[in-house]
Description:
By secondary structure, this protein is an all-beta fold. It has helices at 8-11, 38-41; strands at residues 21-23, 29-31, 51-57, 66-71, 77-82, 89-95, 99-104, 111-116, 122-126, 133-138, 141-145, 151-157, 163-168, 175-181, 184-188, 197-203, 209-215, 218-225, 229-232, 240-245, 251-256, 262-268, 271-274, 283-288, 294-299, 306-311, 316-318, 327-332, 338-344, 349-357.
Amino acid sequence: RSQPMPAATEALPYPELLEKRSRDSDGVDHVEDERCDPSESEVPDLLTGDYRLQILGSLGSGDYESQARAINDYDRIAGYSAGHEQMETSVIVADIENGITGLGNLGTRCAEAWDINNLGQVVGQLGLGQSQQAFYTSDGIIKELIFTGIEYIARAINERGVIAGSLKRAENGERVGFVLDSARIQEIRGPDPSAQSTEVFDINTQGEAVGFTQTQFGRSAYHWTPEEGMRILPSMEGESVAYAINDAGVIAGWSRDKNAHYHAVLWKGDSVIPCAGRKSHNSLFFGLNEKGEAVGMKVDKKTGRWRAAYWDGEKLFALPDQFGWMNWATDINNRGMICGTAFVPQIATFQASVWYRS
């Protein structure tokens, strides 16, 4: 099947991260940053024998776009895949042994999973724009979550079945975070009255949520608890976003410094820790496990492309990739298995992927 090479940033989980980019003749976006000295930002490759990359494929003929967003401790993966109709996507669950299974899209033509817990419950979104609806699965069946709003997305579900996400209120257009515990819903707002939106990306077993709140001055990572509400996390003098939190209260995400460089960071208490060092930039974290291992992506100093990255608790490494193209990691379970997305040049598209220890 012949098709044009897609732009890498169109497939990123959060494409707004790349503000300066150029496109080579291969059609894949490259980071363009004259302030980045490669000698200062080198992140070593992880030995191929430590982790191996496996492409999970997609629905249909197997050469359509797919993405893996989350993985539970039973190595079950949740994400989305296009099928025979390229404009239509479906929720998928997958594993290495059984491959990909489609759960459908409830007739919305567009569905994406964002998280899966150890009970196998999946949450995500149906539709696009003002027709966005949150969903959860029960016994493998997609069911819509009904809220008082015009747009709503479920982005996380913890081991107790508590769901977190974001909604846009119908009466005033305000975008707020939410935590849904049984029939009780709590809304999450920024402490600044001028906050334009609040997004939730993860929730731990204790019901603590993380994400960002946005004002006219940019995004600020936060930590929220049901008892104490929202606490803005320290940054490296620039914007910040928190994507994951474990049960020990460690938080993973990214922060920009005063020169607008991206740093993969962990928050522990009132401290923000750049895991590739303060001189290294253009790295981000998306996922975190209970051992404190984190995953995300970083810029390859040789090619300028984003590559999947893994933090082992002491050092940041680039994960192996036999294709030599763009890829990123979105989640890591407590067994150390990593899921994400990789560009496969043979079929010119991005596909759900898993990195596993040999």
